[in-house]
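Data card: per-record layout.
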Amino acid sequence: MFTKKSNKEKQEKSRVEPIAATFRVSFISKGSGTDIKAKQTFRNFLAQNDNQKYPYQTLPWGREGEIDYCFDFSKLTQAEQEEFKTKVKELLKDFELVRYRENVSCNPKS
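The structure for this 110-residue chain is written out next.
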């Protein structure tokens, strides 16, 4: 037997806690999915860099593979932060479906 969930239960389940992020890289879609090559290029870049120095969390948020990579740079110097952001933007400059935001919470609605 199936039980119907109340609206309150549905709202509580769908609530996402924002992740504090210093830098966010978003792979977006315009109706035909995300750029798989862009995501793989970025994943390869992350695998080659120190995840302890550049900690991040991922937040999938769409129906077509959209995902945010949320970086916490609170323990890095300003120069280290800028160097990382410059490398990422240079790496992904030719991919149209990538967006960047700084000093934002990391959730799909921000």
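Known properties of this structure: Confidence is low (pLDDT under 50) at residues 6-16. The chain has one domain: 19-106.

See the next section for split statistics.
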